[in-house]
What we know:
Distance between the termini: 100 Å
Order of helices and strands: HHHEEHEEHHE
Number of helices: 6
Oligomer: single chain
Structural class: alpha+beta
Low-confidence stretches: none
Strand order of the largest sheet: 1-5-2-4-3
Amino acid sequence: xxxxxxxxALLAVVFCVGGCDFVRxxxxxxxxxxxQAMKIETEQRDTVVEEIILxxxxxxEIPDVPVRDWSxxxxxxxxxxxxxxxxxxxxxxxxxxxxxxxxxxGYEPTLIPFTNGNTGVGVCGGDYAAAASCFEAVKSxxxxxxxxxxxxxx
Length: 154
């Protein structure tokens, strides 16, 4: 009978004190509050990671700039498909002077020969995104006329 009372008392103590957190704490495992805190932290970290991934997938906005397709007027093959056209000259010397002025301002100009004998001066050659992204910076330069535009040659 003594054993029965001892076992019953032990079981009663275990059931009264032995909640899930007590057993976890004795076993060295995290309690319910610690598990909840870890869950919230993981959710916050996952949300931040998802936002970073989504931001990296959204393409960078390309500014809307004036574009003209003169691909049928260009007489020579050029390495890039788009240029910011900063001048068209019937005199090749004037085109060279404009190119020198653009080079002096820190840009690498390209002389663009046209089928009608005129010579254009283009800067920031590349694809559309590259030309459009530096369009505003070129427009603020002293060598750039107000009516400059992005020239498509391919």
